[in-house]
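Morning F.,

Quick status update on the modeling queue. The single chain you submitted on Monday has been processed. Sequence for confirmation:
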Amino acid sequence: MQVRTPFTPDRLAALQSNLSAERLARYLNDTGGDQVAAVALYEWNMAISEAFYSPLQNLEVVLRNALGNALRARYGADWYLQGGVPPLMYPLPEMLAKAREELTRRGIALEHGRILAELNFGFWGGLLSSRYETSLWRPIFFRAFADRPAGFKRKTVHDPIERLRRFRNRIAHHEPIHDRNLAEDYAEILKVVGWISPYMAVWLDETSKVTAVLAARP
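C-alpha coordinates below.
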Protein backbone atom coordinates (compact mmCIF):
# COMPACT_ATOMS: atom_id res chain seq x y z
CA MET A 1 0.00 0.00 0.00
CA GLN A 2 1.32 3.44 -0.93
CA VAL A 3 2.13 5.66 2.05
CA ARG A 4 0.26 8.97 1.88
CA THR A 5 2.09 12.26 2.20
CA PRO A 6 0.74 14.22 5.18
CA PHE A 7 -1.58 17.11 4.39
CA THR A 8 0.80 19.91 5.33
CA PRO A 9 -0.21 23.55 4.77
CA ASP A 10 2.12 23.72 1.75
CA ARG A 11 0.61 20.62 0.22
CA LEU A 12 -2.93 21.84 0.79
CA ALA A 13 -2.01 25.18 -0.79
CA ALA A 14 -0.52 23.39 -3.81
CA LEU A 15 -3.66 21.31 -4.26
CA GLN A 16 -5.87 24.36 -4.06
CA SER A 17 -3.68 26.27 -6.50
CA ASN A 18 -3.42 23.49 -9.09
CA LEU A 19 -6.95 22.12 -8.86
CA SER A 20 -8.31 25.70 -8.58
CA ALA A 21 -9.96 27.31 -5.60
CA GLU A 22 -13.25 27.39 -7.51
CA ARG A 23 -13.16 23.63 -8.07
CA LEU A 24 -12.46 22.87 -4.41
CA ALA A 25 -14.93 25.46 -3.09
CA ARG A 26 -17.87 23.09 -3.39
CA TYR A 27 -16.07 20.42 -1.39
CA LEU A 28 -15.01 22.94 1.24
CA ASN A 29 -18.61 24.07 1.55
CA ASP A 30 -19.80 20.48 1.98
CA THR A 31 -17.21 19.78 4.69
CA GLY A 32 -17.72 22.94 6.71
CA GLY A 33 -14.51 24.54 5.48
CA ASP A 34 -12.28 21.67 6.65
CA GLN A 35 -9.50 21.57 4.03
CA VAL A 36 -8.33 18.04 4.81
CA ALA A 37 -11.89 16.70 4.74
CA ALA A 38 -12.55 18.59 1.50
CA VAL A 39 -9.56 16.99 -0.20
CA ALA A 40 -10.61 13.55 1.09
CA LEU A 41 -14.09 14.12 -0.35
CA TYR A 42 -12.57 15.27 -3.64
CA GLU A 43 -10.48 12.10 -3.80
CA TRP A 44 -13.54 10.00 -3.04
CA ASN A 45 -15.45 11.79 -5.80
CA MET A 46 -12.67 10.73 -8.20
CA ALA A 47 -12.85 7.14 -6.95
CA ILE A 48 -16.62 6.82 -7.26
CA SER A 49 -16.55 8.46 -10.71
CA GLU A 50 -14.02 5.85 -11.80
CA ALA A 51 -16.10 3.05 -10.26
CA PHE A 52 -19.14 4.12 -12.28
CA TYR A 53 -17.25 3.99 -15.56
CA SER A 54 -17.66 0.24 -16.15
CA PRO A 55 -21.37 -0.01 -15.23
CA LEU A 56 -22.21 2.96 -17.46
CA GLN A 57 -20.07 1.57 -20.26
CA ASN A 58 -21.81 -1.80 -20.03
CA LEU A 59 -25.23 -0.14 -19.91
CA GLU A 60 -24.44 1.65 -23.17
CA VAL A 61 -23.12 -1.51 -24.84
CA VAL A 62 -26.09 -3.63 -23.74
CA LEU A 63 -28.59 -0.96 -24.84
CA ARG A 64 -27.03 -0.35 -28.24
CA ASN A 65 -26.81 -4.07 -28.96
CA ALA A 66 -30.43 -4.62 -27.93
CA LEU A 67 -31.77 -1.78 -30.08
CA GLY A 68 -29.31 -2.36 -32.91
CA ASN A 69 -30.17 -6.04 -33.14
CA ALA A 70 -33.87 -5.15 -33.14
CA LEU A 71 -33.27 -2.81 -36.09
CA ARG A 72 -31.29 -5.48 -37.93
CA ALA A 73 -33.96 -8.13 -37.34
CA ARG A 74 -36.68 -5.84 -38.70
CA TYR A 75 -34.91 -3.92 -41.46
CA GLY A 76 -31.90 -6.04 -42.39
CA ALA A 77 -28.17 -5.89 -41.71
CA ASP A 78 -27.81 -2.64 -43.67
CA TRP A 79 -30.53 -0.80 -41.72
CA TYR A 80 -28.09 2.07 -41.16
CA LEU A 81 -28.35 2.99 -44.84
CA GLN A 82 -31.93 3.97 -43.94
CA GLY A 83 -33.44 2.12 -46.89
CA GLY A 84 -36.42 0.72 -45.02
CA VAL A 85 -36.04 2.34 -41.61
CA PRO A 86 -38.75 4.87 -40.71
CA PRO A 87 -37.52 8.44 -41.22
CA LEU A 88 -35.34 9.67 -38.37
CA MET A 89 -35.52 13.23 -37.10
CA TYR A 90 -32.80 15.72 -36.21
CA PRO A 91 -30.19 15.13 -34.92
CA LEU A 92 -30.26 11.35 -35.43
CA PRO A 93 -29.81 11.31 -39.25
CA GLU A 94 -26.79 13.58 -38.88
CA MET A 95 -25.34 11.35 -36.16
CA LEU A 96 -25.83 8.28 -38.34
CA ALA A 97 -24.28 9.98 -41.37
CA LYS A 98 -21.31 11.11 -39.27
CA ALA A 99 -20.76 7.53 -38.06
CA ARG A 100 -20.75 6.23 -41.64
CA GLU A 101 -18.42 9.01 -42.78
CA GLU A 102 -16.00 8.40 -39.92
CA LEU A 103 -15.76 4.67 -40.62
CA THR A 104 -15.26 5.35 -44.33
CA ARG A 105 -12.56 7.93 -43.56
CA ARG A 106 -10.70 5.35 -41.48
CA GLY A 107 -11.02 2.73 -44.20
CA ILE A 108 -13.31 0.52 -42.12
CA ALA A 109 -16.07 -1.41 -43.85
CA LEU A 110 -19.62 -0.31 -43.09
CA GLU A 111 -20.99 -3.22 -41.09
CA HIS A 112 -23.70 -3.55 -38.48
CA GLY A 113 -21.34 -4.08 -35.53
CA ARG A 114 -19.02 -1.25 -36.57
CA ILE A 115 -21.94 1.16 -36.90
CA LEU A 116 -23.24 0.21 -33.45
CA ALA A 117 -19.88 0.92 -31.85
CA GLU A 118 -19.50 4.26 -33.64
CA LEU A 119 -22.88 5.66 -32.56
CA ASN A 120 -22.96 7.27 -29.13
CA PHE A 121 -25.26 6.94 -26.14
CA GLY A 122 -27.23 9.99 -27.26
CA PHE A 123 -28.23 8.28 -30.51
CA TRP A 124 -29.64 5.22 -28.79
CA GLY A 125 -31.42 7.26 -26.16
CA GLY A 126 -32.82 9.45 -28.92
CA LEU A 127 -34.40 6.42 -30.59
CA LEU A 128 -36.44 5.91 -27.42
CA SER A 129 -37.90 9.43 -27.48
CA SER A 130 -41.59 10.14 -28.05
CA ARG A 131 -40.85 10.96 -31.70
CA TYR A 132 -40.53 7.24 -32.42
CA GLU A 133 -43.39 5.95 -30.27
CA THR A 134 -45.41 4.61 -33.23
CA SER A 135 -42.68 4.08 -35.83
CA LEU A 136 -40.09 2.19 -33.77
CA TRP A 137 -41.09 1.65 -30.14
CA ARG A 138 -44.38 -0.18 -30.58
CA PRO A 139 -43.39 -2.25 -33.63
CA ILE A 140 -39.95 -3.42 -32.48
CA PHE A 141 -38.13 -1.75 -29.61
CA PHE A 142 -40.32 -2.75 -26.68
CA ARG A 143 -39.50 -6.39 -27.45
CA ALA A 144 -35.81 -5.64 -26.92
CA PHE A 145 -36.59 -5.40 -23.20
CA ALA A 146 -37.28 -9.09 -22.77
CA ASP A 147 -37.72 -8.96 -18.99
CA ARG A 148 -39.94 -5.87 -18.99
CA PRO A 149 -42.49 -5.66 -16.16
CA ALA A 150 -46.25 -5.38 -16.65
CA GLY A 151 -47.33 -1.95 -17.83
CA PHE A 152 -43.92 -1.26 -19.36
CA LYS A 153 -43.99 1.79 -21.63
CA ARG A 154 -41.51 3.69 -23.76
CA LYS A 155 -41.31 6.44 -21.14
CA THR A 156 -40.51 3.81 -18.50
CA VAL A 157 -37.13 3.24 -20.12
CA HIS A 158 -36.54 6.54 -21.91
CA ASP A 159 -36.56 8.65 -18.74
CA PRO A 160 -33.93 6.66 -16.79
CA ILE A 161 -31.78 6.34 -19.92
CA GLU A 162 -31.84 10.11 -20.33
CA ARG A 163 -31.00 10.66 -16.65
CA LEU A 164 -28.13 8.19 -16.85
CA ARG A 165 -26.83 9.79 -20.06
CA ARG A 166 -26.64 13.16 -18.30
CA PHE A 167 -25.04 11.47 -15.29
CA ARG A 168 -22.42 9.87 -17.52
CA ASN A 169 -21.70 13.26 -19.08
CA ARG A 170 -21.13 14.79 -15.64
CA ILE A 171 -18.53 12.13 -14.94
CA ALA A 172 -16.92 12.58 -18.37
CA HIS A 173 -16.60 16.32 -17.72
CA HIS A 174 -15.02 15.73 -14.28
CA GLU A 175 -17.91 17.36 -12.45
CA PRO A 176 -18.79 16.66 -8.80
CA ILE A 177 -21.20 13.77 -8.26
CA HIS A 178 -20.70 13.26 -4.52
CA ASP A 179 -23.88 15.15 -3.66
CA ARG A 180 -26.17 12.90 -5.72
CA ASN A 181 -28.06 9.84 -4.59
CA LEU A 182 -25.46 7.56 -6.14
CA ALA A 183 -26.99 4.37 -4.75
CA GLU A 184 -30.14 5.28 -6.67
CA ASP A 185 -28.14 5.97 -9.84
CA TYR A 186 -26.48 2.57 -9.55
CA ALA A 187 -29.79 0.82 -8.91
CA GLU A 188 -31.20 2.49 -12.01
CA ILE A 189 -28.35 1.17 -14.15
CA LEU A 190 -28.97 -2.36 -12.87
CA LYS A 191 -32.71 -2.00 -13.42
CA VAL A 192 -32.42 -0.90 -17.05
CA VAL A 193 -29.85 -3.59 -17.88
CA GLY A 194 -32.05 -6.14 -16.10
CA TRP A 195 -35.00 -5.30 -18.34
CA ILE A 196 -32.86 -6.37 -21.28
CA SER A 197 -31.10 -9.28 -19.57
CA PRO A 198 -31.33 -10.20 -15.87
CA TYR A 199 -28.16 -12.26 -16.27
CA MET A 200 -26.24 -9.22 -17.51
CA ALA A 201 -27.47 -7.18 -14.56
CA VAL A 202 -26.18 -9.82 -12.12
CA TRP A 203 -22.82 -10.01 -13.92
CA LEU A 204 -22.52 -6.22 -13.99
CA ASP A 205 -23.20 -6.00 -10.26
CA GLU A 206 -20.76 -8.80 -9.43
CA THR A 207 -17.93 -7.13 -11.36
CA SER A 208 -18.67 -3.56 -10.25
CA LYS A 209 -16.74 -1.63 -7.59
CA VAL A 210 -19.52 0.91 -7.01
CA THR A 211 -20.99 -0.65 -3.87
CA ALA A 212 -17.58 -0.99 -2.20
CA VAL A 213 -16.57 2.58 -3.01
CA LEU A 214 -19.93 3.93 -1.82
CA ALA A 215 -19.35 2.18 1.50
CA ALA A 216 -15.92 3.82 1.82
CA ARG A 217 -17.20 7.40 1.59
CA PRO A 218 -15.31 9.62 4.06
